[in-house]
């Protein structure tokens, strides 16, 4: 079925998700190795069978893969390759242009500070983004977007999104949870300092650069031996300012 979807001029949100899960055989969140090789081979075959040329994005991706067969792609990268209906994930990402805007939205929908946004709250969140952009939609399409987004980012399948899962909507350069630069699972004082400076620059009305040492001291008080883990950082960022 996924192969048949690849023949489409436009792929729906739910079809896109089926394609990703089909090729991500081990469920690690990436299409890589043999999975990626099969995806490229079947993409080329499907487009040919449908009488369609590869799009510029597809062609550029295939050429890049031929140069580096060790590559891998995640679900956000895949949506930039396939002709996904309205590029729904990219649209939602474009509406959350900065860490500051993301945190404002998160606080609004996680009103009880539970640390999670559930399905109904996610639907309202996506509805507001669509209305803000004056983008037409109907309830059936909104439901599809909601369920697909939940399935994509709900990594532990608990039916709700925590802060780190939801933050994957942000571009990498704006994703504060990727500030764990060495990928060791925690942030030290230098990495926290870089994060706070970035937040101050983006939200000068709320955060003052001169107070960074005070912010840093208060936040590091939550750390474990100078190591600030993601859960502690999430608690800090979710508090009302």
From TrEMBL:
The UniProt keyword set, sorted, is: Acetylation, Calcium, Metal-binding, Repeat, Vitamin D
Pfam families per record: EF-hand_7
Q: Which domain of life is it from?
A: Eukaryota
Q: Which PROSITE patterns match?
A: EF_HAND_1 (PS00018), EF_HAND_2 (PS50222)
| Stored InterPro entries | Calbindin_Ca-bind, EF-hand-dom_pair, EF_Hand_1_Ca_BS, EF_hand_dom
Question: GO MF annotations for this entry?
Answer: calcium ion binding; vitamin D binding
Cellular component (GO) terms are: cytosol; dendritic spine; nucleus; terminal bouton
Q: Which GO terms describe its biological process?
A: regulation of long-term synaptic potentiation; regulation of presynaptic cytosolic calcium ion concentration
The keyword Heme appears for this protein:
no
Q: Does the keyword Zinc-finger apply?
A: no
Occurrences of domain EF-hand (ranges):
11-46, 53-88, 97-132
UniProt lists the family membership as follows:
Belongs to the calbindin family.
What is the role of the protein in this entry?
A: Buffers cytosolic calcium. May stimulate a membrane Ca(2+)-ATPase and a 3',5'-cyclic nucleotide phosphodiesterase.
* Xref: PANTHER family: CALBINDIN (PTHR19972)
This chain's protein is named Calbindin
Q: Specify the species.
A: Pygocentrus nattereri
- In the record, what lineage is assigned to the organism producing the protein? Eukaryota, Metazoa, Chordata, Craniata, Vertebrata
